[in-house]
Amino acid sequence: MLAFINKKIEDMKQIISLFYGPKYTRKQLAERFHDWRNSVNRDPADKDKIIIDGSRSQVSVFSRQWKWIIIQALLWLIISFKFEFPPVINLMAFLTIFSQFSHNIMIISRDKRNIFNTFIAQEILSARSFSTLLWESLDGLEKEKEAPVSVSATDYAPDCEWTDITLQLITNKHDHSLPFIKIIIGHESSDMLHPSGLGLVHSSDHRKQSPAFMMLKLFGRHSSFIFEGHSSQRASIEKKIQILITIINTYFGARDIDPIVQNNVTGSWECFINIDDRTNTWDQTEKERGQDINTILSEWNPLEEEPERIDQAAEDYKMKGYGW
Fold first, then answer.
1. Domain that includes residue 64, residue range
2. Bridge-partner residues for 166, per DSSP?
3. What is the mean pLDDT of each run of 10 residues along the chain (324 residues)?
């Protein structure tokens, strides 16, 4: 019995918190959500607070119905003071207005949560996009200086076209983030090379992959792609691709056309060198992101039952007292 009472008290506190407290803009809520999503622990308490604050900050159209409840309450008070009614009539009038008051609180609470659910679902699904995944994956490498390791100019196979060259990425059992690289041209292939030999690691720490190496892995999954970020993000991605182009041109020798170009019409980046990623690094990254997004979506927007559709016209009719 005590547990039941405590649960009801907590439910009442939660409902009250939907009406009283600070309100936040959608930009602020989105930033708080993505900070939580990118955090290591993903604290459930922080999640619940974001849900409460986010729901409170939404504007429900059903808030306009308070005026009808207030009008009915005032009319009842005026009439009850001017005329003598049996106690049962006053009790019925009180219960009617109280039920409308309680009903409106529940409708507004549910509507605010539904609006927030729609908003947060859009934010969750936006994190599934290719551009967001690429940006966040590269963001984890920004702690180190971007300058590539010095790579020797070998003019490897200068007579071959870019499309004749294949870079095969082979699993490094000692460090999965730094697969070995084998250069294949026709039926000939090189020895397995460490990424540092091609300048694809950080200059300050050869045990860490550079953003250029991550871009190379990406082209192993998508020979062409379009990055849909804002202008500063697109400029940053272009800078990283230009570093990769410089590394390839330095090692293999420059050609009439760069190994990676951007289509002037579509804006897509296209790689002419064949990247055979036997580690399936980027494919695994996309699968993990998809599973993570599905988990977050089910936690923030559980679909245990079909949400009841609120008929606004019917609710307005009730709040005006026509349903007595």
1. 12-126+292-319
2. 184, 274
3. 64 70 92 92 91 89 72 75 75 76 80 90 91 88 54 70 93 90 89 88 80 93 92 92 92 90 93 94 92 91 52 52 47
